[in-house]
Amino acid sequence: MSKKVIGATIIIFASLFANAQDQKVNKNKPASIALKGSILNFKKTPQTEGLTVSTPAVGVQFFKGLAPRLDAVINLDLSSLKYPYYVSSKQPKATSNSTYAAVDTRVHLKLGNDDKALLPYAILGIGLAKDAANFTAYAPMGLGLQFKAKQGSFFHVFATHNAEASKLTKMHQNYGISYSFPLKLKEKKAIALPTAPIQADQDDDGVSNENDDCPERSGLLKYKGCPVPDEDGDGINDENDKCPNAEGTVQFRGCPVPDTDKDGIPDDKDTCPTEAGLPGYKGCAIPDTDKDGINDELDQCPNIAGVAGNNGCEDLQPKLNNIAAALKFEIGQVNIANKLLQSLDSLVQIMTLYPKTSLVITGHTDNTGTIKINNRLSLLRAKKVQSYLIKKGLAENRTTLIGMADAQPIASNATKEGRTQNRRADLTIKYE
To answer: How far, in Å, are 167, 180, 225 from residue 177 at the CA level?
Structure first.
């Protein structure tokens, strides 16, 4: 029977212990003490045949709550018994009256909280007993039932089996009842001290409303209850702002972003922060790609070094004069000699290299023939040169034709050589 009780108790104890692990310690639960009455059952042996093996006992228990469902208990049992106690396991003495005392430490694992009217619990502990002859160890385990009497006070009905820890252990079972009540000291009443009247503080900043210039905004006492000011409104209060009167940024500790080159573009947006420039060039100066001293905005030939008089372009007129010097025509003719076509090809290359230029082609004659014939002939000579250039890829709108007849001779028409020089075509470059 005892083995079944032990097994059942162990199972219940394990279940309750697992349940109790999640419970928080109840620090407010007071300690309590219980008065106890019980029946002690002792082992029957051949030496005790015919003798009483049950005897009444009185006791005291001390309770201390560890958790809402877990109590620690110190248990004391006292009894006077008539029993053939042992000197050793095999040497019983004669029947004798003996005072029996047992003390143990145990835990009560409860199925609920103390607010329940009826509450079962499991018991498990370890203890030491003393009779006239021996000290013996035992382990109480069992079940109990708690009845709520009033707040903090309880009746307990319990039964334990005392497992043998030595062969000299005699107390076998314990059945009883106890009544527990709390040990609570009287609390000293606190003496109420006079307090100053509480002043309203609407914004909870520690400055009363009557002294707070900003009662609806939390602030500091040194600013009369107002927040730290931000004079320039840049979101950085004046205490942390190195430039409190100028709007700035956190990066520069409340100061504006610097403009090192004074070009009106802040350094954080200026690609050339140490060189004055323009917004269109991200704070850099207007570039001069061909390094001719004329910036690209004013340079019509930004990729080729030139001179200011030609808007940054090379002075091409000497090259055109050399080409024109060979453009001579026979009397009354407009055809260009094949040997001159190569020089016109180079002219097309020049015009292609300088797309922002145009060409004026002027035809001339000697004084041979009538003015009407010479006007027409000079224009045809200019037209002939234009046609070849267009054929080689020059856009027609980049050319202008002029016929001057014999009005602009470069040599005397009184000689054959002079008339040959005058039958010509001039080339003039124009820059847009």
So the answer is: 28, 10, 68
